[in-house]
Amino acid sequence: MRGAAENLREMHRGEMLILPNAWDALSARVFAEAGCKAVATTSAGVAWSLGYPDGERLPWPEFLDATRRTARACPVPLTVDFESGFAASLAELGEHVRQIIDAGAAGINLEDSRDHDTHELLPLEAAVERVQTAREVADKQGVPLVINARTDLYLRGLLGGHLVPFADVVHRCRAYLSAGADCVYPIGLADMPLIRDLTAELGAPVNIMVRPGGPGLPELRAAGVARVSTAVGPVVLVAGVLLDCIVKLKETGSAEHFASPFTYPRMQKLFGH
User: Fold this and answer.
1) Which domain range does residue 13 map to?
2) CATH no. for residue 119?
3) Residue 269 falls within a domain, yes or no?
4) How many whole angstroms separate alpha carbon 8 and alpha carbon 173?
C-alpha cells in the first residue's frame, strides 16, 4: 500500500490528474480500463449502491467492506471518499483511518463539516485536529496516505444564499495543508477567476469538481489545478441511462437500447486477472 500511496502523491505534481469517482468494483475497473491513472470513490454512489442515502448513513462495516472489494478489483491507486470519517471522536477517526488503509486506500477525502444536510462547518481548530490525526495515524502505519482536505464553505454559501469571503477559503485551506493535507478541495467552487486566485495563493495541489456547465479541463489545467474529480456525475449518469433503457424497452419492445461497447466476454476479461 505504501507504493500505491507514493504513486498517488506523485500524480499531484506535473500534469493534471483526472480522477473519476467510482461506486463499486465494476465502475472502478471500467475507469482503470479507460486509462485513468488513479480512481476515487463517491460516498453517495457507494451508499446508494448498498441501499442507503448519502451522508454517513451507511454503517461503517459495510462501507469498509465496499472499500475492500473495490480496492481489490482496482489495478490503480484508489482514494476513498471518507466523508468526515464516520467518527465522533479523534480516537475513532484514527481507528477508521487505520482500517481504511488496511482495506486498500491510498488516499482519503476528509470533509470539514459533519451535517450532510446543512454542511455546518466544524470549528477550524477541530477540523485541523482531524487532518492532523489522519496524518499521524497514516505515518504510524508507514503509509504516505494522500489526504484531500475538503472544505464545505462554498456549499454552505450556496445553501444560505450568501457570498463566501475568499480570504476565509484561503485561511482554511492553508490550515489544512499545514496540518498535513496533500491537497485541498473547495467543493462547489466553479468560478474561474477565483480558482486561478486560489491556486496562485496556495501554491499547493487543489482539487476541483467537474460538472456539466462548469469549467472544462483545458481551463482548469491552465489555472494550475492539480486534480479534477467527477463526484456523483458518473453514478447519476448510469442511473439515468438504466432508467431510459428500461423505459424504452417497455415502450418499444426493442432491446436495441442496451447496445454497449462492452460485451460479456470483455467484462469477463476485465476481472479475469
Assistant:
1) 2-231
2) 3.20.20.60
3) no
4) 20
Residue whose C-alpha cell reads 462492452 in the numeric block: 262
**Is 45 a member of any domain?**
yes
In a domain, residue 254? The reply is no
- From the number of C-beta atoms within 10 Å of its C-beta (0-12, 13-18, 19+), residue 123 rates as exposed
| Amino acid, single-letter form, for residue 98 | R
Number of domains in the chain: 1
CB atoms within 10 A of CB 223: 20
Residues 33, 115: Cα–Cα separation, whole Å: 35
Residue 182 lies in a domain: yes
The CA distance from 122 to 151, in Å, is 10
pLDDT digits (tens, 9 = 90+) for 193-221: 999 999 999 999 999 999 999 999 999 99
Task: Give kind and range of the element (H or E) at residue 92.
Answer: helix 90-102
Can you give the pTM of this predicted structure?
A: 0.94
Name the nearest CA neighbour of 74 among 83, 66, 85: 66
Answer whether 17's CB lies under 8 Å from 38's CB: yes
Q: How far apart are CA 60 and CA 259, in angstroms?
A: 37
The Cα–Cα gap between 93 and 108 comes to 12
Identify the CA nearest to 75 among candidates 99, 100, 106: 106
pLDDT at 159: 64
